[in-house]
Amino acid sequence: xxxxxxxxxxxxxxxxxxxxxxxxxxxxxxxxxxxxxxxxxxxxxxxxxxxxxxxxxxxxxxxxxxxxxxxxxxxxxxxxxxxxxxxxxxxxxxxxxxxxxxxxxxxxxxxxxxxxxxxxxxxxxxxxxxxxxxxxxxxxxxxxxxxxxxxxxxxxxxxxxxxxxxxxxxxxxxxxxxxxxxx
Length: 183
Ligand SMILES: Cc1cc2nc3c(=O)[nH]c(=O)nc-3n(C[C@H](O)[C@H](O)[C@H](O)COP(=O)(O)O)c2cc1C
Description:
binds flavin mononucleotide
């Protein structure tokens, strides 16, 4: 399985780091693209440089490189997830405005009928944000706000992050025991 992982400049870079680690441990091929604000937030929130993020991926593509393999539907990948997904990136995807590799790869994922998950993060949400989410949800994009459930009684931030990571893996149809399942 090949997965495209996009990181944009919303809060929650810790989810991206956790997902990349989990996919690496599972031996799944990842194609990583990070926006410039995605880099900034990952450094600020996690102390992770672009080289650190790159080291967790199989292949890294520059967001300015619109000629990268993942910008074409003829390059076969299975699914894509943007985590975290900013409202700006959400807007670009909802409007087909592909001015970066990340937004172009989302556009390709949609046009090829492949699974796309957007881990959207902002609060509160404006009608513009909600409208963009609705447009994408109606064409089959999975809108996944990484909002934690507390019924599993998480005790640490790591518990919360792993639970969210497990939910993303579930949505990617990847078996895992990270998420705490209701019994
Ligand atoms: C520390 C920090 C946290 C941010 N958190 C969010 C957020 O949660 N959601 C969001 O939509 N934008 C957030 N932003 C603003 C985005 O980074 C900004 O809109 C940027 O243009 C997004 O560009 P990108 O989608 O190309 O990464 C944050 C910015 C900073 C510096």
